[in-house]
Amino acid sequence: MSLPLLDPREAWKPLPASAWNADLARHLLRRAGWAARPEDVARAVQQGLPATLARLFPATPPPLDRPVFLARAEERIIELQGSRRSATTPEDRQAIDREMRELNRLAAAEFAFRWLQTAADPARSAYEKWVFFLSDVYVVAIDKVYRAENIYRHFDTLRVHGAGPAPALAKAVSRSPAMIDYLDLNRSSRRAPNENFARELFELFVLGEGNYTEDDIKQAARAFTGYRHNPRDGFRLVERETDRGEKIIFGRRGPFTGDQVIDLAFEQPAAATFLPREMARFYLTDSPPPADYFAPLGEAWRVSGYNLRELCLRFFGSLAFYHPAWRASFIKSPVHYYLGLVQDLGLDVIPLERSTLQPLRQMGQQMFQPPNVRGWVGGRLWINSSTLAARRQLAQTLCSPFDEQRLNADEKLDLEAARDAGRRRFTVDEERITAFTALGPQGIADRLCDFFLPGRVDDGYRAALVDYLSSARDAAAFEDRARRATIAVLQSPEYQLC
Amino acid sequence: MKPLLPSTRREFLRLGAKGVGLLAFSRFAPQFLVQSTLAAPRPEKDRRILVLVQLAGGNDGLNTVVPFDDPAYHSLRPTLALKEKDVLRLDDHLGLHPSLAAFHAMMQEGRLGIVQNVGYPNPNRSHFRSTEIWETASASDESLSSGWIGRYLDNACAGPDLAAGARSQDPEAIHINAEVPQSFGGALPHNTYGLTLGARAGRAGRDEVALLERIASRPSATLAAHASHESESANHAFLRATLMDSLVAERNIQRIIDQNRPEAAYPGGNFAQSLRNIAGLIAAGLSTRVYFVSLGGFDTHANQLNNHANLLRQLSEGLAAFQKDLTARGLDEQVLTMTFSEFGRRPNENESAGTDHGTAAPLFVMGKRIHGALHGTAPGLQLERNADIAFSTDFRSVYATVLDRWLETPADEILGARHERLGFLG
């Protein structure tokens, strides 16, 4: 059933302007972002592909300001660290540790809400998804990083450098406090170099397995010594812990620094195809073709000085990206499923752990906590009875009136704050369903299928919806069925795909 | 709306004449169809079941199996130590916590065993990481992405069972909590099922479930004919099959639980009710091989005495009722239950009348086939100030024993190394 892929020499050429249409625009919007809202599809068709891509991937990405609570929590944590040092009893220390844990937990949740809300903005979806992809390459996990502030800064680093040259990004990541803690750079010194970061730099960040030797790792680890950070100064290089001696890496000899090792890695031929193939795995298919297939794309990327924005424009603008084998066939991650719902239904992110972060966890994706340094495995492993039940539950919750009775006082305050900031559409309300019923059974079925589902669904799918909708006894029952039909579509296998 | 999917093979065969058209599902046919077209499942008696009971938070081993005659125990725990007169004696040195009377009785009957001082080298004291180590059966310095049960299921999947058509629509493993335990993660996708979530979803919207069933089970022949270049992808077929399996499982399981008539009295509380449900599912003949249930609250940093006593009472009374129920229904030959916890607790108590994260602890194994009461050796308590006990039995030896002697599967392959077998299964 699988379609033959294009010849690699053809695959990475730009899609001709004449081929651009609404179907392809939907594919682009769902894969580069989360959903294809009709107004965004119309705009993309009208603007054409190159202008659309230039808009989705801006040369100067907008910042995501430090969340207010997170900033305050960080100040308080620094204060607490001071008093922990002077604490005399274990009880005092325990109380301080408890407060710091709680502050970090709340600050991480706040940042998660902020990021989700930003990523749900259709104007920013594609770039924030790109940041999320980069965080799935340059992986850190909060259970080891511990500080929410450092997770925020890591994402900021990925955002700031994500549209520039890849070597500069890699160098910035090597200085990211989250990465320094996550891959044990903080414990790597001249006397005892730790190989964790050097190994992942070659294996998972830049080159891929088989493109370096164990000796290259050992030598490179010596270059990444003395990398430290503290809350006040951020990154600093501690000279006496740093190995300035000569190293031999990839057959080259010299007193290389960490930055020079990164430059050496990007001089290796494998660097040109590694990240493009990771993109294919994240955006296109569970089983990307071998590295060779990406050689023409990689070569153009290398010539651009490994400019990441250039890579995005070429990748999402290529014939390969729009190949039929890679359409309506990819399983959405939990984050994609959630943000797709938020966009498709025109909702705001509910800033409550139980409504947002907990469902993500139940669907198998805990924010800032990938299972290990390889990141999320994804694909079919997202799906089992339990995670499908969690997806179904989420669709149902977002399409049902929001029950605020059960909330505690803190949660009510958080909701109040969101409303004050103009975010109040937390679930699909009665009025919208009532408006929806005016379309009639066939109209509702067509709209649900055409707006929400990737590809073209068959007549059997539509017929099931029309039958269900038209067998309502009266107006109230019809309204109820319009809501339930919407829920069933969002729960259906087809909506899990993009 | 009437449910569309058949929930039994007989029902399917009846519906089959009407041409539901489901068999067009290439290589991801829902399990219940695969089964219906192949040989019948293996006889009930072959089915050995493992029930895993997680004591989440880190159970205090020293106050569970108490070294009452060791002066070091009493000096480490001025307020928390249990007195000789209160414990339920196992021998001249060890006794059970007074809340474990039901366990004590089962030990007399030879249905409960204790593996003492279980842990692993270079212990990690983070809840998250240590739970991960236990669930993936990894060494403390390696990171595995699959769980030990998941690898067992991978192995069972690849084995001769599938060829013989022995798999059915029933979930391969069931967990009684919202999140899939890491233990269940395999290299292949598995039909696992979460009980609370599923049960709730089933109740909330039967109507849209029926519509969903209808969408998921529509004949794919129409789809094939209609599709131009957007042919049904393998992922699409996989999603449809998984959804149908879970809808069928959801309905079956809900019905079984509704109709469950236990033959023993269970105490109140969620934990015991979960065990009651598990007994019902086992009695109904599901082909599920692994159940996972969790009892939380063992992270007793402060005011431990009462909390711990309550938890251990829930544990022992719940499991005793479960075992009694299984026995009355003639199912006790088939079921082995074992407990685990991410770590034990610090031998010395802290300033808050609690204990901090520690290392090794005893675990319980329960079933008709248990041999011997005490396994392994008790921890030594001659320790430096605020030091932890050193484990004497590696938890992977417990797993190896269960995999090898109970689930009869190549344990060393699943665990990636050879681990010594223990004697608790004879």
Word description of this protein:
The complex is a heterodimer of chains A (498) and B (426). In chain A, a hairpin with a 3-residue loop joins strand 1 and strand 2. Chain A has a domain of 163 residues. In chain A, helix 2 packs across helix 3, helix 9 packs antiparallel against helix 10 and helix 24 runs antiparallel to helix 25. Chain A contains 25 helices and four strands. Chain A is mainly alpha-helical. The longest helix of chain A is centred in the first third of the chain and has 31 residues. Chain A has a two-stranded antiparallel ribbon with strand order 1-2. In chain A, strands 3-4 form a two-stranded antiparallel sheet. Helices cover 58% and strands 3% of the residues of chain A. By secondary structure, chain B is of the alpha/beta class. Chain B has one domain: Alkaline Phosphatase, subunit A (3-Layer(aba) Sandwich), CATH 3.40.720. Chain B is 38% helix and 12% strand. Chain B has 15 helices and twelve strands. In chain B, the strands form two sheets. In chain B, strands 1, 5, 6, 7, 8, 9, 10, 11 and 12 form a nine-stranded mixed beta sheet that branches. In chain B, helix 8 crosses helix 11. The longest helix of chain B is centred in the middle third of the chain and has 26 residues. Chain B is globular. Chains A and B meet through helix 6, helix 19, helix 20, helix 24 and helix 25 of A and strand 7, helix 8, helix 9, helix 10 and helix 11 of B.
